[in-house]
Amino acid sequence: MAKMTNLPRVLLEDILSRVPMTSMRAVRCTCKKWNTLSKNDNFTKLQFTQAAAGARECEFLAIVTMNCSLYLMNINLHGVYNDYDPSIRLTGTVITLDDSDRVVISRICHCEGLLLCTTEAYTSLAVWNPYSGQTRWIGVESTSVHHIKLWYSHALGYEKGKSCRIHKILRFARLDSERSVHEIYDFNSDSWRVLDVTPDWDVKYESHGLSLKGNTYWYATDKRLGDRFLLCFDFTRERFVPRLSLPFRSSSDDVVTLSSVREEQLAVLYQNCHTFEMVVWVTTKIDPNALSWSLFLVVDMRPLSGFRFYTGGSFLIDEEKTVVVVFDEDKNVNKPTRNTAYIIGENDYYREVDIGKITTGKEGFPHACSYVPSSVQINQPA
């Protein structure tokens, strides 16, 4: 019987391309030959083809942060509207950045296959490609402000129009009612720079930014008038662009959270704090200067769940099924004990799926982002 190492290259590529993407680090660590083969462009295209075949069966991957840990989640919505339930299962803890338990991740930002990970102690940032295992650690030292225990908002994006993408990180924080700090990190220069920004808006810490096509969007509030809108940072021009309108009016108590569809469209979920009606829109056009919206789903949640989702929560969309999956805690608002995925569709379709125990003392609320493995390279310092 021929050994795996002696098989023809074409056959070996076909066999290894069927290995789940979450197990690729183990493949690469087996031997130098497999490591080299798995990073080949032809192999990557072949593996993506295998993954796409699985996606047609109504399965997709998500990365979820819960209890300061990262998990890979497999979501299968094939059973929606049929006689059997859909499935959401954790396929295991995502391999830690340094293969140890010393790194505790409190938040992540996702940008086309790359994750910007914030450590709980805020001693460093890491940009990580879970598919390739490539990591870049970044110091958080600031020349403009003493940042210990500041609640920074972070975003990962990239500059366009170059032969290759130049990734950048934006971070900002409100020091008090009058002062704020905005800084940008350039992967090429390996340094932080202070941006000249005088914000007339406010972004809550629990409001996660959503990166799409290299730029990042937030749900923001006008400091003086209280109006609510979408705020966009253009990483190519390194500035916040004029405000973008939302397809609804909202108050401070309403739920508003952002997601993406196939990393091509922006989606927004709105839930009224009084009626509990949930409405989801998806963009038909998106660029840093203009948006247009299409209504995706309207559901009265009062008879279904009987409670309001958390403002800093997250959701994913399945366009084919017209289904929204919302990640939150259980309905015991005063003392929740379980993280829960709520699957919501047309004609009052509603299911709850338990996705794990809430660990006391950890930063709460599960946060999920749709994940497509990518071979994009992380710019490394010279």
Our Rg estimate from Cα atoms comes to 21 Å
DSSP summary: helix tally:
4
The largest β sheet comes out as: 5 strands, antiparallel
Q: Categorize the overall geometry.
A: globular
Oligomer: single chain
Cα separation of the termini? 47 Å
DSSP summary, beta strand count? 25
Mean pLDDT: 82
Name the beta content range. 35-45%
Structural class category: mainly beta
Report what the structure shows.
With 382 residues, the protein is mainly beta. The protein is 10% helix and 42% strand. Strand 18 and strand 19 form a beta hairpin.
Which characteristics define this entry?
globular, single chain, 382 residues, mainly beta
Compact summary:
10% of the residues lie in helices and 42% in strands. It is mainly beta and 382 residues long. The protein starts with 8 loop residues before the first helix and ends in a 12-residue tail after the last strand.
